[in-house]
Design goal:
31% of the residues lie in helices and 32% in strands. The chain contains 19 helices and 36 strands. By secondary structure, it is of the alpha+beta class. The strands form nine sheets. Strands 10-11-9-12-13-14 form a six-stranded mixed β-sheet, sandwiched between helices.
Length: 696
């Protein structure tokens, strides 16, 4: 029990009833403050009124009396100064936290935290993770000899030393950890089932690769290709009469498509090397062999065009020996089949050889897992958006799966086979076109199905950030970041360049064109690819070309009407191509046009010194006989003595008798004088030449 003075309300005993009523009305407020009215009474013997209040809250009891302003105000009825219950609770919570913080600062309780450190972290973020003030972290860095601001980024090693200095535990993580577990574990042998072989058809251009595949598919793909050559990677699955399936990948044979052939060889099980019987082994044939050997893929040689009268298959087998290909007919292990795509002969033997080789390889995969594979080709379709041709290598790809393809991700909205039919799922060794990616992925990149959109977005953002960093580094390296490189450029003069903006129908073509035009660069003229993308030419492409003074190269695509109008108004050059070697020729002409003309020496003639004259006010004059060609005034001359050049200069005077002439032909005598040279002897030979500028 605690007793308190009621003040003016209890001064007169006659006001007992008024006092009791007043305290009863204030009982609710007292209860909110942690007090409870226990008894109300008046002592008639004392001049002051006394009331009794029971305390039931420890915090209120700690105050020791009811003279606290809040309680006194509640008793006296000062409603304007009464605090709410929520306000009181907030104040008590602040007091509790302040007391806890004071105990921590006085080292009564030491909290050791596990601080997660990425590859780089700012000072402010490091302080937050350690629950420490940022100025304390900066002071620690200064003691370590590191001057840093609150927004400066620290490397992981420096941050780890700071964390250890504060007595916390360190857990190092890397940005690459986001890809951990992306590729599934190795499948058990019991889960593996037989899958169709993936066969890549490779060889020299115009040796009949696509025609051979057409004969197997009973379709005509080459008829739709510009110039009759394949310029895209095509992926098809053929079902034989026996029910067996074979997946074919057709690669282009032109030299510009080296990357496409390498991509085809990297995903293949078996390589079918097509060699024309009337042409033999050619440069792209050798390159295809190298790609197949680098991929450790077995080779089956298909000797095509056996229907031609000048077909010589034995010569093909002999030429293959020099490249390490020994066919079975010559005692080796490589199968060879003589075929004719035009007459459709030998196709059954080729299919039989492929199935035999796949049986030897024992090709198996687990279809009951998340899909994994490779992007074979990609393009931007005007009506369907980004379209990627992918080869499923493990697992089964279902419609609706979330996939990450290179640096892009998306949900598979639709899947189509090589005949354009809709599919719900695609198993191992199945090539399909998928729709639903956010952007066009880079051809040759792996793709994998993931469990959630969040994981896919996280992986995609990480990979795109790495690509941007790599591109920024390449630009910095091209500009030359060091002082020495800058001085070297200043001394050498500004380098000329041809800027090219490439837009193609598929990713592989853009990649091949970029490699082709960059190969045309010289020491004097640099070729810079501003952009290499897929899809139609838009207004933003024209604006970029104008800003960078670029030529737009369009390969199998066209500009929109708005882009054409903008290009015409701004004077941007758009060039359309459908055959890659025509494009390469035009870019080479552009490079040559930027190259400075070369000075070339043109021989005019020889003159032999017969007599030497000393003439007043003129100097030494040589009396000569023109023995070859002609001698021309103002031309360059060399004086030869015993076939050794003793002087190089200009011809200042040329006389025929007493007359000045422009030139003297062979068999005539003349008088010659030279600028700043007088040491002439009889028998010396004067070589006359002129310099002309020719295009590089």
């Amino acid at each position: 029990m605690v007793f308190a003075n009621a003040g003016s309300l209890g001064a007169v005993p006659g006001r007992r009833d008024e006092l009791v009523a007043h305290l009863t009305r204030r009982s609710d407020v007292l209860r909110d403050l942690g007090c409870r009215l226990y008894e109300v009474g008046v002592n008639d013997d004392e001049p002051d009124t006394v009331f009794v209040v029971e305390l039931w809250d420890s915090a209120a009891a700690h105050r020791g009396s009811l003279q606290h302003p809040d309680v006194q105000a509640a008793i006296e009825g000062e409603d304007d100064r009464v605090r709410s219950l929520a306000s009181v609770r907030r104040q008590r919570e602040r007091e509790r936290r302040q007391a806890e913080l004071e105990r921590l600062r006085s080292d009564q309780v030491k909290v050791v935290r596990e601080v997660v450190l990425p590859d780089s972290i700012t000072v402010q973020e490091l302080a937050n993770r350690m629950a420490t003030r940022a100025p304390d972290v900066i002071k620690t860095l200064m003691r370590m000899g590191v001057m840093a601001t609150i927004t400066q980024t620290l490397d992981a090693d420096t941050a780890e030393l700071v964390v250890q200095e504060f007595g916390h535990r360190v857990k190092r993580v890397s940005e690459e950890d986001v890809e951990l577990g992306l590729i599934g574990a190795t499948d058990a042998a019991a889960e593996l089932l037989t899958r169709p072989p993936v066969v890549t058809v490779m060889g020299h251009v115009d040796h009949g690769k696509t025609s051979l595949l057409d004969a197997l598919r009973a379709t005509d793909v080459a008829a739709g290709e510009a110039g009759g050559i394949t310029q895209h990677i095509g992926a098809y699955q053929v079902e034989l009469a026996t029910g067996d399936r074979i997946t074919f990948i057709d690669t282009p044979g032109h030299e510009a498509f080296t990357a496409m052939r390498a991509r085809g060889a990297s995903v293949t099980d078996i390589v079918v090397l097509v060699v024309a019987a009337d042409d033999g082994v050619m440069p792209q044939t050798i390159e295809a062999i190298q790609h197949a050997q680098a991929a450790h893929a077995p080779i089956i040689v298909a000797i095509n065009k056996m229907d031609k009268p000048d077909a010589r298959p034995e010569r093909v087998r002999q030429e293959l020996l020099s490249h390490g290909i020994v066919v079975e007919a010559m005692g080796g292990e490589t199968q060879d089949v003589e075929v004719s795509a035009l007459k459709r002969t030998g196709l059954d033997k080729l299919a039989e050889a492929i199935l035999l080789q796949s049986e030897i390889l024992d090709l198996r995969a687990n279809p009951e897992r998340a899909a994994e594979g490779t992007v074979i080709e990609s393009r931007l379709d005007r009506g369907r958006g980004p379209v990627a041709t992918v080869l499923v290598q493990r697992g089964t790809l279902h419609q609706g799966d979330i996939v990450v393809a290179g640096a892009e991700w998306g949900r598979v909205r639709a899947m189509l086979d090589d005949k354009g039919r809709q599919l719900k799922d695609a198993g191992p060794s199945m090539p399909v076109e998928i729709l639903g990616l956010a952007a066009v992925p880079v051809a040759g990149e792996p793709f994998v199905a993931v469990e959630s959109e969040g994981r896919a977005r996280e992986i995609s953002e990480f990979r795109q950030r790495k690509i941007r960093e790599k591109a920024a580094g390449a630009v910095s390296a091209a500009r030359g970041g060091t002082l020495d490189q800058m001085l070297a450029r200043i001394q050498a003069g500004e380098q000329k360049e041809v800027a090219v903006l490439i837009k193609a129908d598929v990713q592989g073509s853009a990649e091949a064109i970029q490699a082709t035009v960059q190969r045309l660069a010289t020491d004097e003229v640099k070729v810079r690819v501003v952009l290499a993308g897929v899809g139609q030419i838009t207004e933003s492409d024209v604006q970029l070309a104008r800003a960078s003074n670029s030529v737009i190269v369009a390969f199998n695509v066209r500009a929109t009407a708005q882009a054409r109008d903008l290009a015409q108004r701004d004077g941007v050059d758009i060039r359309y191509y459908s055959i890659i070697y025509e494009l390469a020729d035009d870019i080479e002409k552009l490079v040559r046009g930027k190259t400075a003309p070369k000075a070339r020496e043109k021989f005019l003639g020889y003159a032999e010194v017969r007599r030497v004259f000393q003439i007043t006010k003129v100097g030494t004059v040589a009396g000569c006989m023109v023995t070859d060609g002609l001698v021309k005034r103002g031309a360059g001359v060399r004086v030869l003595r015993d076939n050794v050049v003793i002087h190089t200069g200009e011809l200042t005077q040329l006389k025929r008798f007493k007359d000045d002439v422009r030139e003297v032909a062979r068999g005539y005598e003349c008088g010659l004088s030279f600028a700043n040279f007088h040491d002439l002897h009889e028998g010396d030979v004067v070589e006359c030449y002129e310099t002309e500028l020719v295009a590089a």
